[in-house]
């Protein structure tokens, strides 16, 4: 269901109660041991890997975003992919509808010959226009574009309404496609994504379906909203579903541009949460190396550090400037 806009007074009152970071670093899933310095990371220390939810699979704590990859030139994109793999990034993100399929086409070309090094994720985009049959057609198109015979993680993309949840689980809905794709061996793991309404995530999770992963916004700005970090993340951990962090820098890096927090603070905050990976939008080799170095040299924030960063972001959260992806704040 849609949320009614909150009054500014009620919202600010809530922010005063937002408080401490959800979980401290001792609860991180399968983080590699040791905290190398950034200089060590740039000289070859790989991005560490974390356990993928309940499954005995390890994925890099940094995931290469597929949407922004297509913003780069073909030549730069190839260099980014090579640099990511060389840095230990094995988790690659994409979606059937990114740039009308051009993102999958590009990534398919860039990973040719190195597919077996990659935990490959893409997403199915039925939304309000289809169910099982349409999803299976999209899957075949994604496989062809990506140049592979299987997808490691196939997620239902960008759920935003309760009607979409109902359609997903109805007879002939996209959930049936997840089951069918797994039975056919074309998909290893399944999940869903969304960034507009935490109640939609909770409605999906209420069905008890054995999702392997779920993608959600995680940032110190988001944490003050009593939404995804406070409400959805604990439920994912309860069900042993791998949380995949996104919108860590607001989805457009505007919090960094405006000096709310630094790239390192944003990534380190998200990595200090019990997530399997942070999906990172990267448009250049320099950005890849910067973010990979931060992930490789990661040392968890203390609860006090997380609280302090959240409190620094209270005004940014209240401004509604940095969560344009959230439905109730639009």
CATH architecture, by name, is: Alpha-Beta Barrel
Number of domains: 1
Percent strand equals 5-15%
Tally of DSSP helical segments: 16
Q: What is the total tally of β strands?
A: 10
Low-confidence segments, given as residue ranges, are: 1-27, 30-43
Shape: globular
Q: Could you give the distance between the termini?
A: 15 Å
What is the share of helical residues? 40-55%
Explain the overall architecture.
This protein has helices spanning 8-15, 38-42, 66-69, 74-86, 102-110, 132-146, 162-169, 174-183, 198-205, 220-223, 228-238, 254-257, 263-271, 285-296, 303-312, 314-319, and strands spanning 49-51, 58-60, 62-64, 91-92, 119-124, 151-156, 187-193, 213-217, 242-246, 277-280. The strands form two sheets. It has an eight-stranded parallel beta barrel with strand order 3-4-5-6-7-8-9-10, surrounded by five helices. The protein has a two-stranded antiparallel ribbon with strand order 1-2. Mean pLDDT is 88; it is low at 1-27 and 30-43. 41% of the residues lie in helices and 13% in strands. The chain has a single domain, classed as NADP-dependent oxidoreductase domain (TIM Barrel), CATH 3.20.20. The chain has 330 residues and is an alpha/beta fold. It is globular, with a radius of gyration of 19 Å. Helix 9 runs parallel beside helix 11 (228-238). Strand 4 (91-92), helix 5 and strand 5 (119-124) form a beta-alpha-beta unit.
